[in-house]
């Protein structure tokens, strides 16, 4: 059935041909005439005890696909499971709950393990009630719904307003087992009854939000999709989602949209309620495919950039022998030597070249310098911020300088102190070098 050699471009051609000939009504009526031959029954929906559970007297669920409730006084609810095998999807399409079926609705959500509810209508449309307000009217436990008939409670955890739709999060608790689940609620508010959204782009943004949540995935229970009757807007939503899923799964192959509508109508009557809704579904599928292709191109570009970066290799390091054998391009800077270290080395050399009684000194650069009077340890007062520096100069220059004999005594005293320091350092240094030589000798002996 699906071995068609045509591509997705032929879908646009079909759309343009129908558009040019203004044949949407004819195409829609042809689908309706084909479905009149379906042999499916609605016996349970027409039972006397179940008639009041239907919102409309001409929209009934087929017996072979209807949802059957398990722990309720009645097993009936106006809802059908609609599979689309080619898309690997299942949907539950249902009417907007009545006041008497709110418990049945939430029991269906619980028993079918659904994780998402898609609501495509307002509560009031054209001054008529199209759906009962079936969820808590506030956030928090104080607004919690207690459904004793089906042993469930429903609490609204959060509500977020977005352009054109609301998102809500509900917590459903089984009163017997205390087991709970979180269910997302997506409420689209800009789709008029028996009409279509003004643009497919806003609708596709809404659909993408629901898809990203995972509520439509095959790994969880089927999502609950409803409007007022559960056939027009609900059928259009499921048709667009199913076709886009097939495109993503199979690629740019031709999809017979009209045939998919016929297949879906085998599970619930009347899906796609007007010729305008069928036309809108075509437009949304075509625009949705363009968005998918843009996404694939973007993903490919990102992947190719990542691969290109990964293929780049770092330059090889220079040969180790060359870097070790050649002299550096410019000489390394000299290691700065501290003044104290230089003085110590100079002192050790002088000590090794003389005996303990040797009084000959090797004067350093500092010793050759005669300390001027103003650098001696005079009792100099440090000037404060308020006292000018010139005052200090006058105080130093006004003090009398020492005579020549005093200078000689001072130099002799400094020389004696330096000799004493050299003699005190000689023995520790000699012992250190002695121990070092002994250690080297022992190490050599043990090694050989």
UniProtKB/TrEMBL annotation:
One of its GO terms (biological process) is negative regulation of ERK1 and ERK2 cascade. InterPro entries: NR_tyrosine_phosphatase (IPR051985), Prot-tyrosine_phosphatase-like (IPR029021), PTP_cat (IPR000242), Ptpn1/Ptpn2 (IPR012265), Tyr_Pase_AS (IPR016130), Tyr_Pase_cat (IPR003595), Tyr_Pase_dom (IPR000387). Residues 11-288 form the Tyrosine-protein phosphatase domain. SMART domains: PTPc, PTPc_motif. The chain crosses the membrane at residues 425-446. It is found in: Endomembrane system; Endoplasmic reticulum. Its EC number is 3.1.3.48. Pfam families: Y_phosphatase (PF00102). Residues 355-415 are annotated as: Disordered. This is protein-tyrosine-phosphatase. The lineage of its organism: Eukaryota, Metazoa, Ecdysozoa, Arthropoda, Hexapoda.
């Amino acid at each position: 059935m699906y071995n068609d050699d045509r591509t997705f471009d032929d879908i646009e051609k079909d759309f343009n041909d129908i558009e040019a000939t203004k044949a949407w009504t004819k195409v829609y009526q042809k689908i309706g005439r084909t479905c009149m031959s379906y042999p499916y029954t609605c016996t349970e929906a027409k039972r006397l005890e179940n008639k009041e559970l239907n919102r409309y007297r001409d929209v009934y669920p087929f017996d072979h696909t209807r949802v059957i409730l398990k722990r309720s006084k009645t097993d009936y609810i106006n809802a059908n499971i609609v599979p689309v095998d080619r898309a690997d999807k299942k949907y539950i399409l249902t009417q907007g709950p009545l006041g008497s079926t709110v418990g049945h609705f939430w029991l269906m959500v619980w028993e079918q393990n659904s994780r998402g509810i898609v609501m495509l209508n307002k509560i009031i449309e054209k001054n008529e009630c199209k759906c009962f307000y079936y969820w808590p009217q506030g956030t928090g436990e104080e607004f919690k719904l207690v459904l004793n008939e089906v042993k469930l409670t429903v609490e609204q955890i959060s509500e977020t307003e977005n352009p054109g739709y609301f998102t809500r999060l509900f917590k459903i608790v089984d009163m017997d087992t205390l087991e709970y689940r979180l269910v997302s609620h997506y409420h689209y508010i800009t789709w008029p009854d028996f009409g279509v959204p003004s643009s497919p782009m806003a609708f596709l943004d809404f659909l993408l939000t629901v898809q990203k949540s995972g509520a439509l995935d095959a790994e969880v229970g089927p999502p609950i999709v409803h409007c007022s009757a559960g056939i027009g807007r609900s059928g259009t939503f499921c048709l667009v989602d199913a076709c886009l899923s097939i495109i993503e799964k199979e690629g740019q192959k031709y999809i017979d949209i009209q045939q998919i509508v016929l297949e879906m109508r085998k599970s619930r009557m009347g899906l796609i309620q007007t010729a305008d809704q069928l036309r809108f579904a075509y437009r949304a599928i075509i625009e949705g495919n363009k968005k998918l292709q843009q996404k694939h191109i973007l993903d490919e570009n990102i992947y190719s950039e990542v691969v290109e970066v990964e293929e780049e290799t770092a330059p090889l390091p220079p040969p180790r022998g060359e870097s070790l054998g050649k002299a550096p391009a410019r000489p390394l800077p000299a290691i700065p030597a501290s003044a104290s270290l230089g003085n110590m080395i100079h002192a050790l050399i002088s000590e090794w070249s003389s005996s303990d009684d040797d009084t000959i000194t090797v004067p350093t650069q500092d010793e050759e310098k005669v300390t001027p009077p103003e650098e001696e340890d005079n009792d100099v007062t440090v000037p404060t911020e308020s006292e000018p520096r010139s005052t200090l100069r006058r105080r130093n220059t006004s003090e009398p300088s020492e005579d020549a004999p005093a200078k000689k005594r001072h130099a002799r005293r400094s020389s004696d102190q330096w000799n004493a320091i050299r003699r005190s350092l000689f023995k520790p240094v000699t012992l250190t070098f002695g121990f070092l030589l002994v250690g080297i000798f022992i190490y050599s002996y043990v090694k050989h």
